[in-house]
Amino acid sequence: MKRVILTSPSGVGLTYADRADMVVPLIFRFVWGPLPTSHHLGEYLTGGYFRGDPEVRWSDLVARSPQSGLAHKELGLVWFCKAYGVEEIELWFDPSPSNQLQLVWILDYLRSEPYAAERTKLRLVDFDLLGADGDRLRDHAIRQLEVTEPDFEDARIAWEAYRSPTPELVSGLLNREFHTLPFLKPAMEELLAELPSPASGLGATEAQLLDLIAKGHNRTKELFEPGGLLETRVFDQWELGPLLEGLASGPMPAIAGLDPKLSTLPRHDARGRNAAYRRSRLSLTEFGQAVLAGREDFRRHNPIRRWWGGTLLTNERLWRWDREGRSLVSP
Fold this sequence. Notes:
Elements: E1 3-7, E2 22-25, H1 38-46, H2 77-83, E3 88-93, H3 97-110, H4 114-117, E4 120-124, H5 134-139, E5 144-146, H6 149-163, H7 168-173, H8 184-192, H9 204-214, H10 220-224, H11 237-248, E6 255-256, H12 270-279, E7 283-284, H13 286-292, H14 298-301, E8 305-308, E9 311-314, E10 320-322, E11 327-329
Parallel strand pairs: 1-2, 1-3, 3-4
Antiparallel strand pairs: 4-5, 6-7, 8-9, 10-11
Helix pairs in contact: 3-6, 3-8
């Protein structure tokens, strides 16, 4: 039986686990920055290049296949599956918010492709793919589910909700049951928790950062490294840097000690920026201590312009999330 696995970058290790004829890591992350347009996402999967973005396609991280060589480099994803008689398309996405967003996106795409939809299976991966050793990826028993039309519809609803210009539809998903997608609702709640809180103006990860720095953890290496002190499942280490910079800049910064050279380095200078982060020795300002204690609202004194799914957060349109009450607070 010819089998293809679709997974996230976290699941790239499945390439060597002998689970399928081909493993396709889908590169997009949807938790930081503006979302790619539907056109860009479609071109990525159908094999086209698009102007203004890196020339990247679904096949770029796929190894040579013993059966088809490099033929997949010239075809769209579904076209390739048809041409080579793929009988099963397995979806391997772990419970992290980024993985669950990738899952609903790819399900929404596959539902409109009858050949692929009929062959799509879902693996309930209940552990983090990133860092899982080869033995676990190869031998661990993982439940497989059929994907039905209601499941495709659930994915469509969730993906459209996340792409909408306010978080209201995502908040509404918390009242909905997703029987075949059991990790989706917890992931959406984790994403909502990254909206500013009504009291401090901090998202969940921002609050963790301030709390750890207040406890004396002043080096970015111990804060950012995977499996480190910062217990975030939403952002990766490359997304934490801009989040930290937002807390350390503005009219009233909450954090002091961030290397000032960061403000002059271009975003693409990964080596220079990483060195600047490592030189930093972080501490809370007096204002930061008040924010952490809930006595001050960080967003009342500092600007924000950040994307949360399809929602552009600004000081004028600042949606907030009450984590204790599990409720959305409109601007």
